[in-house]
Amino acid sequence: MMYGSWCIRRIASSLRRGGQSTNVAFKQLKSLPIQHSRHSVTVATNINTGTRKVVGWWLAGCCGMTVGAVVIGGVTRLTESGLSMVDWHLIKGMKPPHTEEEWMEEFGKYQQYPEFKILNHDMTLKEFKFIWHMEYGHRMWGRMIGVAYFLPMFYFMGRGWLNKGMKIRTGLLGGLLVFQGLLGWYMVKSGLEDNFKSSDIPRVSQYRLASHLGSAFLLYTGLLWSSLSILLPQKPIPTTKAIGSLRRLVYSTKGLVFITALSGAFVAGLDAGLTYNTYPKMADRWLPSDLLGFKPKWLNFFENPTTVQFDHRLLGHATLALVTYTWYKVRKTPGLHPRILLASNLMLGMGWLQVILGISTLLTFVPTHLAATHQSGSLTLLSFTVWLAHELKRIPK
Ligand code: HEM
Q: Where in the cell does this protein reside (predicted)?
């Protein structure tokens, strides 16, 4: 393995000096083994390939379950079901109401809160049961991720399958998972507070919604990166200056996708997708008249639906421009293997689709199916940029 890393450096430095043609150097790189060094694979070195795959698939499975949680959470929000369960108990909360009395009791609790009093005062028990089941499904899915994550983690640790680095990494991701659940309840609580006026629409704080979505995306990224490290180890790449700047470009693209997704959560949290449903202009103007209507000015970026939607449009277009430019640079960089080209092609396709989905969501007044697809699209786009970044990550010396 040491020989492999040495070879890559030799070939790369020769590429830099122009000592041999790119094609010859690339052929040499292709013939090198995949990077299974102690640096790139973070499970214990004394376990066999099958066991390593079990750990990799466990992480990939939890990653898939996180996607499920984001989708169910999005649909729960879009069907306005998120405030139907007004308390939270880890164990007791798993038992749904069975008898009609139990349902009436649960419905009675909901009736004490602003969403019922202001918005849903004519809601029937049947309608309540629907929104309750949506929120229950989201919470139960979260608990299932907890079980699917922690039980195997302790088992693998007990069996000595995880090395020190992986123990720290899985411990941190586990902490993020618990934090995610607590943040979810903290978010719901903001929609149950009794400080809404009768003209308000009771909803959760957009700050807490963005934090909840952002931390889900972080957890997802961590799980995806870790599972890729085990299941799809990096292939050799030259260590040229061009690759170095491409790597920085891809990392910036990944960062911008993340920031745009966070700004989308602010749009969702303020229902800002229901103002200015025109494109490309906002009510016949490039700069809407109430763009900076709130005082102090900085508040507009977080609380003024017009500014929040405007920013999300700008960020969405900037993301698309950067995704396209990154794709172009990947194509122009010599010495990259086909998997990198595939990841970058998928990233480009998804970038365009995501913007088309965003515009369609806006023009059609945010129907649930389109808004939920747009939300999942952001996760898919993030996945392709994470994959690309993973393929290009620096190979430790
Ligand atoms: C790469 C670009 C984009 C990304 C990554 C992205 C991501 C997101 C995310 C994560 C949300 C939050 C969804 C939720 O929590 O339910 C969102 C919401 C939204 N986005 Fe985008 N978006 C992008 C581009 C655009 C564009 C260009 C437009 C329109 C011009 C747009 C319009 C919307 C609208 C209207 C919502 C609110 C939907 C709702 O209320 O559920 N997006 N976006």
A: Membrane
> What's the rounded Cα separation, in Å, for the pair 57 and 59?
5
Looking at the chain, list the stretches that DSSP marks H as alpha helix, in order from N- to C-terminal side: 2-17, 22-30, 49-78, 100-110, 114, 125-159, 164-192, 206-231, 241-269, 300-303, 305-332, 338-363, 368-391
CA 172/CA 164 separation, integer angstroms: 12
102 CA → ligand 1 middle, Å: 39
Nearest CA among 31, 28, 38 for reference residue 1:
38
Please classify residue 396 by burial: count the beta carbons closer than 10 Å to its beta carbon, then call 0-12 exposed, 13-18 middle and 19+ buried.
exposed
Q: Are 231 and 180 within 8 A, CB to CB? A: no
Give, for 336, the enclosing helix (H) or strand (E): none
* Residue of 253, 312, 352 to test ligand 1 pocket, by largest number of atoms within 8 Å of CB: 312
* Ligand 1 atom 31: residue of nearest CA: 358
Taking phi over 0 as left and psi of -120 to 50 as alpha, with beta for the rest, 160 belongs to: left
Q: Which of 262, 303, 312 is nearest to 282 (CA)?
A: 312
Supply the ipTM of this predicted assembly: 0.94
Q: Which atom of ligand 1 is nearest to the CA of 372?
A: 16
- The CA 334 to ligand 1 mean position distance, Å, reads 35
Instruction: Name the residue at shortest CA distance from atom 18 of ligand 1.
Output: 264
Any ligand 1 atom below 6 A from CB of 312: yes
Collapsing DSSP to helix, strand or coil, 43 comes out as strand
**pLDDT tens-digit readout, 52-103:** 999 999 999 999 999 999 999 999 999 999 999 999 999 999 999 999 999 9
Nearest residue (CA) to ligand 1, atom 24: 316
Count Cβ atoms below 10 Å from residue 212 Cβ, excluding itself: 27
385 lines ligand 1 (CB under 6 A): no
